UniProtKB/TrEMBL annotation, chain A:
Source organism superkingdom: Eukaryota
Described function: Subunit of novel type of clathrin- or non-clathrin-associated protein coat involved in targeting proteins from the trans-Golgi network (TGN) to the endosomal-lysosomal system.
Protein name: AP-4 complex subunit epsilon
An annotated GO cellular component: endomembrane system
Family: Belongs to the adaptor complexes large subunit family.
Residue ranges with Polar residues bias: 890-902, 927-940
Compartments reported by the entry: Endomembrane system
Chief location: membrane
UniProt biased composition (Basic and acidic residues): 706-716
Automatic annotation (TrEMBL), chain B:
Highest taxon above the source species: Eukaryota
Protein name: AP-3 complex subunit sigma
Source organism of the structure: Citrus sinensis (Sweet orange)
Taxonomic lineage of the native organism: Eukaryota, Viridiplantae, Streptophyta, Embryophyta, Tracheophyta
Length: 969, 154
């Protein structure tokens, strides 16, 4: 065969590819492919095909199958090819089978043996190919057949093989966690592999394992942090750099893992702060991958125990993302914002206009993400605007999947935050009207229940108002063509139940409408059933009220039609209606009491009201009733079924499935735990030693209670659990000190943010001409209300004290604020005009307290308090230095051996740890500085804010109604 | 986890399709078609991300990159980072740019069982070259062929 194009493929094949590429229609392409299949079918079954030719046929089969045609006639040849000794052919065979077969295919059984053999091959490429196939082709049942070999490969001399072996084990774990339960320790062990690539690969399974069970891996926090530190400090080989970033994919994985481990765990989180902060600082935000790492940092920060400084950095990055021109970054920014507002909701306000821009962006993905964010930050103050927006968007899209989702979100938000009954009904109407068929039927039932029960308050008046507004709106809507069935059901039910309740609408009008509905949707039986029952209710209420009923002619004909319906249900309803109309008022009122849909119906299961009748019959000599289960001997048709079951239970022939066998797995974990250290199933001499080392890495900080405790005695461990250390008291005091510090910091952060908000509100007096008024309104309505809660929370102790201290310098302050505000107009997200009133309202009442409080505090001027802070910070930092020094010292002295007994400097974890600690100690002082720096503008801000409070006190106040009037028209 | 990698041209014809969870042939075609349907409806200057829950089930996302007449598409779940996936496409494309052959081999070196294996295109090329070197060596020994530089599928 002549090799064309330099790829060793025949001309025939290249022609095929070319003709497919040039095919003008799907039909033409299909014709070519079918032709090809015929050729291949014929050729492939010829005897004695040269192997190279066969290889090409197989590749052509792969191609054919990629184009969507069945190539199963050639599978067996692909399987055969895996048996070949030649590397090229074997790899081709493996490639083909991984693409063709799934793990449960019948032919797999023919491959398992080959895989087993190849995993033991001397040629590492063959091993790699086999590992690749293992991932795709081995299922739960065949895992044991290859597991020993794969585990053995964890110690292979080639790092590429070790890496793939770890990935294969990970795959096994995904397919059947129990099959590799006893091997989990191998992942921990490989975390200390000499090769960074292998270490990086280990992070994938560890991530999965930690997702499932966080607590068993808390001990690894220190290791992960130190690895991340080393990576970020570029101590990996240069080849791991990507676009000038040191091993970004490993950084991302590690940050993900840290996010899991630090979630809700203050102690673990504290270990992470420094390194995450470092990455925030170092990360190159001009490259895509740098931003990927930054985004991951934000995710991590929003997941771990909150740290104000990190949150600040995260907010800065988010601001940069949102301001960027790249849609990708905007998307990430919105996503990150959605994460961060869980911990610090006030951040959203800084970005209101950016968010609104995203909402109006033509990019659908971005829009949806933004709706997700809005969904997360909905509260009663902005629900109307958000839900309105959502509905508008819902109407505009065609994607049913997303329509359903957004509809259910609208419903959820409306139910949760509805400001008024009227609005709620209107909203639900819109949702049903436009997405009715996509909404879960439960939502409709929920709506009916809500209308019937009211909003739970004991205010009958409001409830009846709700109902009459519902009735009114439904009567308006009912005439529209093509309403969704679910919606019509709701309409019919409500009209029947409450249509005539308030007496505004005449019965004949409603019944006319109902008849129209039944006629217009004559092939929907459910609607007809709802309609006729509604008719019955209305007539019943009319009769009960003593009014004369004139049945409309169309109603008559409807009844006639339904009485002859094929559906027994409709028939029954029609006959019932006829019967009811023939009754007198008294009887009707009993069978159809008005507004009784919420009454509980008591069901007398014993049918006790028939007792008298039964007794009479018995007296007359009737046979007494024998319960069904006692009549086993009788062979009447009616109880045949039950008898059958009865028999079955006697003879013991069971038709239901047997109970699942109790898996042997549960008994394993304890065993495996033991085996992890002693009974290592892996034939590897160094195993127990190394495992211990792994455990000892973290035990620098948190003592491992089992075996390492003795060694650590006498070592002062401030990071450890206090129970094991003699210096318990000192530890606890230091932490408490920190917390105090933390709290004050949080407050400080709040101050800054809050005062920024204030700035914007202040700005609104001289609105920026560039921002369209509409957007400002929207911003105000979306974000305006949120300062409410924030405000209240922050007017306490320390903050009040601070605020008070500024009052002395008030005149000067207001001037300064004016200036800075003017400057800020350019930089900061511009203002919301309509938000004006709100903060003023809110600030008025709480502002009384701080000012009163301050009179007592006036004499404690600002400077001392600030220095106090510095001192606290310094204290803390020196503390940290102490800690690090100690740990660094205690590392070697406590006899904890280097975990990696090799000389590769850059990967040596423990040395890295001690190194990092010294670094940390050095880095301690700068941090202190930066805190103070960040406090600088802070005080200024609070000055501004203070002056603002004064100014705003005068402004008229009545916040939202106006605004909504504008927005809702 | 990465669920699938697809390369298709701007007319929706698949050039490479790899699924890390098994999908029957018909399903594969359907997925490729619906992915193409989503992609061709997107303008040039919008983001590279699409939420793909309607195609691949809840929580899945899709990142694509458009080069000349080709779409490179990665589909993955919430355990991956969108921007990072975008860069992984970059790695893949850069690698292809350096040696355009053995697409599947290259992809196998980058993604393994749905997890990111290698992210340096230089390392990938090194591995691929080593494979083809050894392959031709074994070819020479087996006396099957003199000049097969490797296999490929496109």
């Amino acid at each position: 065969m002549g090799s064309q194009g330099g790829f060793g493929q025949s001309k025939e094949f290249l022609d095929l590819v070319k003709s497919i590429g040039e095919a003008r229609s799907k039909a033409e392409e299909d014709r070519i492919v079918l032709n090809e299949i015929e050729t291949l079918k014929r050729r492939i079954s010829e005897p004695d095909i040269p192997k190279r030719k066969m290889k090409e046929y197989i590749i052509r089969l792969v191609y054919v199958e990629m184009l969507g045609h069945d190539a199963s006639f050639g599978y067996i040849h692909a399987v055969k090819m895996t048996h070949d000794d030649n590397l090229v052919l074997k790899r081709t065979g493996y490639l083909a089978v991984t693409l063709f077969l799934n793990e449960d295919h019948d032919l797999i059984i023919l491959i398992v043996n080959t895989i087993q053999k190849d995993l033991k091959s001397d040629n590492y490429l063959i091993v790699c190919a086999a590992l690749n196939a293992v991932c795709k082709l081995i299922n739960e049942e065949t895992i044991p057949a290859v597991l020993p070999q794969v585990v053995e490969l964890l110690g292979h001399s080639k790092e590429a093989v070790r890496r793939k072996a770890i990935m294969a084990l990970h795959r096994f774990y995904q397919k059947s966690p129990s099959s590799v339960q006893h091997l989990v320790s191998n992942f921990r062990k490989r975390l200390c592999d000499n090769d960074p690539g292998v270490m990086g690969a280990t992070l994938c399974p560890l991530f999965d394992l930690i997702t499932v069970d966080v607590n068993s891996y808390k001990d690894l926090v220190i290791s992960f942090v130190s690895i991340l530190k080393q990576v970020a400090e570029r101590r990996l080989p240069k080849s791991y750099d990507y676009h000038q970033m040191p091993a970004p994919f490993i950084q991302i994985r590690l940050l993900k893992i840290l996010a899991l481990l630090g979630s809700g765990d203050k102690q673990a989180s504290e270990n992470m702060y420094t390194v995450v902060g470092d990455i925030f600082r170092k990360c190159d935000s001009s490259s895509n991958i740098g931003n990927a790492v930054l985004y991951e940092c934000i995710c991590c920060v929003s997941s771990i125990y909150a740290n104000p400084k990190l949150i600040e950095s995260a907010a800065d990055v988010i601001a940069r993302f949102l301001k960027s021109d790249s849609h990708n970054l905007k998307y990430m920014g919105i996503d990150a914002l959605g994460r961060l507002i869980k911990t610090s909701p006030e951040i959203a306000e800084q970005h209101q206009l950016a968010v609104i821009d995203c909402l109006e962006d033509p990019d659908d993905t971005l829009k949806r993400k933004t709706f997700e964010l809005l969904y997360k930050m909905t509260k009663s103050s902005n629900v109307e605007v958000i839900v309105d927006r959502m509905i508008d968007y819902m109407i505009s899209i065609n994607d049913n999947h997303y329509k359903t989702e957004i509809a259910s979100r609208c419903v959820e938000l409306a139910e949760q935050f509805a400001p008024s009954n009227h609005w709620f009904i209107q909203t639900m109407n819109k949702v049903f009207e436009h997405a009715g068929d996509l909404v879960n039927i439960k939502v409709a039932h929920n709506l009916m229940r809500l209308i019937a029960e009211g909003f739970g308050e004991d205010d009958d008046n409001a409830d009846s108002q709700l109902r009459s507004s519902a009735v009114e709106s439904y009567l308006r809507i009912i005439g529209e063509p093509k309403l969704p069935s679910v919606f019509l059901q709701v309409i019919c039910w409500v009209l029947g139940e409450y249509g005539t309740a308030d007496g505004k609408v005449s019965a004949s009008y409603i019944t006319g409408k109902l008849c129209d509905v039944a006629e217009a949707y004559s092939n929907d039986e459910t609607i007809k059933a709802y309609a006729i029952t509604a008719l019955m209710k209305i007539y019943a209420f009319e009769i009960a009220a003593g009014r004369k009923v004139d049945m409309l002619p169309e109603c008559q004909s409807l009844i006639e039609e339904l009485s002859a319906s094929h559906s027994t249900d409709l028939q029954q309803r029609a006959y019932e209606l006829e019967a009811v109309t023939g009754l007198d008022a008294y009887a009707v009122e009993i069978i159809m009491p008005a507004d009784a849909s919420c009454e509980d119906i008591e069901i007398d299961k014993n049918l006790s009201f028939l007792n008298g009748y039964v007794e009479q019959a018995l007296e007359k000599g009737a046979q007494p009733y024998i319960p069904e289960n006692e009549r086993s001997g009788m062979l009447s048709v009616s109880n045949f079924r039950s008898q059958d079951q009865h028999e079955a239970s006697i003879h013991g022939l069971r038709f239901e499935a047997y109970e699942l066998p109790k898996p042997s797995v549960p008994s394993r974990p304890p065993v495996s735990l033991a085996s992890a250290t002693e009974l290592a199933p892996v034939p590897e001499p160094s195993y127990p030693r190394v495992t211990q080392n792994v455990a000892s890495v973290p035990s620098v900080s948190s003592a491992d209670p089992s075996d390492l405790r003795l060694r650590l005695d006498g070592v002062q461990k401030k990071w450890g659990r206090p129970t094991y250390t003699p210096s318990e008291t000192s530890t606890s005091t230091s932490t408490s000190e920190k917390t105090v510090n933390g709290v004050t910091k949080v407050d400080a952060a709040r101050d800054t943010i809050y005062s920024k908000v204030r700035d914007t509100t202040y700005d609104s007096r001289k609105p920026d001409a560039e921002i369209p008024l509409e957007k400002q309104k929207l911003a105000a309505s979306l974000f305006g209300g949120s300062s409410k809660t924030e405000r209240r929370a922050s007017t306490t102790g320390h903050r009040a004290g601070k605020a008070s201290s500024h009052v002395i310098e008030k005149p000067q302050a207001s001037k300064a604020s004016d200036k800075t505000v003017a400057e800020k107009t350019i930089v900061q997200p511009p203002p919301d005009l309509l938000d004006l009133g709100e903060p003023a309202v809110l600030s008025r009442s709480p502002s009384i307290d701080p000012f009163k409080q301050l009179e007592g505090l006036l004499d404690s001027p600002q400077v001392p308090s600030n220095s106090n802070h510095g001192a606290a910070g310094a204290n803390k930092d020196s503390d940290i230095i102490g800690l690090h020094a100690e740990t660094a010292g205690s590392g070697p002295s406590s006899g904890i051996v280097n975990p990696v007994p090799t000389n590769k400097n850059d990967l040596d974890l423990l040395s890295g740890l001690s190194n990092s600690t010294t670094n940390n100690a050095l880095g301690g002082t700068p941090t202190a500085h930066s805190t103070q720096v960040s406090k600088g503008p802070n005080t200024k801000d609070s000055l501004e804010k203070d002056s603002l409070v004064r100014q705003m006190g005068v402004t008229p106040t009545s916040p939202n109604p106006n605004l909504f009037k504008d927005l809702l028209g | 986890m990465i669920k699938s990698v697809m390369v298709m041209n701007t007319q929706g014809k698949p050039r490479l399709a790899k699924f890390y969870d098994f999908q029957p042939v018909e399903k594969q075609q359907e997925l490729i078609r619906s992915v193409f349907g989503v992609l061709c409806g997107r303008a040039d200057n919008v983001s590279n991300f699409v939420e793909a829950d309607s195609i691949f089930g809840p929580g899945t996302r899709l990142v694509y990159k458009h080069f000349a007449t080709l779409y490179f598409v990665f589909i993955f779940d919430s355990s991956e980072n969108e921007l990072a996936m975008l860069d992984l496409i970059q790695v893949f494309v850069e690698t292809l740019d350096k040696c355009f052959k053995n697409l599947h081999t290259i992809l196998d070196e980058i993604i393994f069982g749905g997890q990111v294996l290698e992210t340096s295109s230089i390392e990938v090329i090194k591995a691929v070259e080593e494979i083809s070197k050894l392959e031709s060596a074994s070819n020479a020994i087996a006396l099957v062929s003199k000049s097969v530089s490797g296999w490929r599928s496109r």
